[in-house]
Amino acid sequence: MKTLIIVSHPELMESHTQRFLWESLPEQDVTWHHLEAVYPDGVIDVTAEQRLLKGHGRIVFQFPLYWYSSPPLLKAWQDAVLTEGFAYGRFGSQLVGKELQLVVATGVPEKDYQAGGLEQFTLPELMRPFQATAIKCQMQYFPLFVISQFDYMSEQERRKLLIQYRQVLTGRLWGTLEEKEAWFEEELTTLGKVHLSEDDCLQVDLLIQQLQTNREHLNDLNWTLQEMRE
Amino acid sequence: MKTLIIVSHPELMESHTQRFLWESLPEQDVTWHHLEAVYPDGVIDVTAEQRLLKGHGRIVFQFPLYWYSSPPLLKAWQDAVLTEGFAYGRFGSQLVGKELQLVVATGVPEKDYQAGGLEQFTLPELMRPFQATAIKCQMQYFPLFVISQFDYMSEQERRKLLIQYRQVLTGRLWGTLEEKEAWFEEELTTLGKVHLSEDDCLQVDLLIQQLQTNREHLNDLNWTLQEMRE
Asked: Which of the residue ranges A45-59, B42-56, B164-178 would you say has the lowest mean pLDDT?
């Protein structure tokens, strides 16, 4: 499935978070679409946008949280592109079944977003307008992916973020353990070795072997459990 | 207290609702500020806007509901005008104590906005980003004023809307019965008679008298009740 990342950020070049995400992109099946760069005058090409949507199964809205919502150009995009007859209406939605994923960057810690916290409301609550949009367009709404205080992240946290972001782009962050293992194996087999030394390649091969061995061991345990129950 | 109505509507002239509201405005203490008319190119004069805010005690955001939120220019206004140091931050907010009122026009019935309803979420829920903004700016957030399906309203419903809207603009819709009576008396005494015939003026005077008599009667009843309790 192809992923369309609709990025809305008025000052993308100055955002460390967005640059990091851009550099983390998989090599294929992903379209990066930065609205402020494509439409500097704010006039949106509705036909082109609707064609883009039709060509992708997974739609990502990626933006920094300004005043508890997206920057204005993403809202302008919604109002212009999600027309009656295309996104909703008597004859159904042409977006039916597509996946909608929000990737939201915040400057304050995620724990501030809760009743009694500094921001009082949770992020899923504040994103209701997007959830309602997904429902209206008969799209499948995914759990938020929140990136908080990127600038304060350690190198290790950033590496974890990179992996999670790549999983988010393919909708694999919320799979079963088995699906996650398959994702890791795939990533390690195809992309992981491109720029690696011979030694590191060997390490990767060992890691894949270890993953497979663990999975076989788990399968055996499950099998034994099932037999005991019967 | 002066009221600033910040209207965001990309096609104001074609909206029956907005025209009706514009024609219902009180003669004084109200500033009508239509963002799309003032800033057709979308570039907002931050200093002018902040000065406007400082000169008014009650701020109204008035807009049609597009994709469960405001049109994009109001969001652009928030992002541009509510700067750190002015609206929030270490040195407090210059908007502290001001009232924030949302006047939202919808094309579908208000009852559709609830769990299990067509739109799944309530309007107060969908307006959380504005409520969170009010909290951050230390403003007092008022209950939503929703205008649903204006085009289907009867003449009588519109008259009721006119009265409620004028009460909303002065923050009097949510007062006690006594405060509401005082509001009616004031309106009838000052504004109501400007364009009336002599006969109608007499009617208005009788109405004011009746209101006062009713109030005296109610006060007497309350007094008797209190005595009986003692």
From this structure: B164-178
- Of the candidates B211, B204, B179, B178, the one whose C-alpha atom is nearest the C-alpha of residue B189 is B204
Distance CA A219, CA A230 (A): 17
Strands A58-64 and B30-34 come out as unpaired
Tens of pLDDT, residues A80-106? 999 999 999 999 999 999 999 999 999
* A140-141 and A99-106 strand pairing: parallel
Domain boundaries, chain A: 3-174, 175-230
The class (CATH top level) of B3-174 is alpha beta
In angstroms, the separation between the Cα of residue A130 and the nearest Cα of chain B is 8
| Closest residue, chain B, to A136 (C-alpha) | B119
Is the CB of A133 less than 8 angstroms away from the CB of B79? Answer: no
Taking contacts as CB-CB distances below 8 angstroms, the residues of chain B near A76 are: 72
**Touching check for B55 and chain A: CB below 8 Å?**
no
C-beta atoms surrounding A162 within 10 Å:
14
Rounded to whole angstroms, how far apart are CA atoms B141 and B139? Answer: 6
Q: Is the pLDDT at A181 greater than 70, yes or no?
A: yes
Distance, CA of A88 to chain centre: 24
Interface of A with B in 28-47 (CB under 8 A): 42
Predicted complex ipTM exceeds 0.90: no
Q: What are phi and psi of A88, to 5 degrees?
A: -165, 175
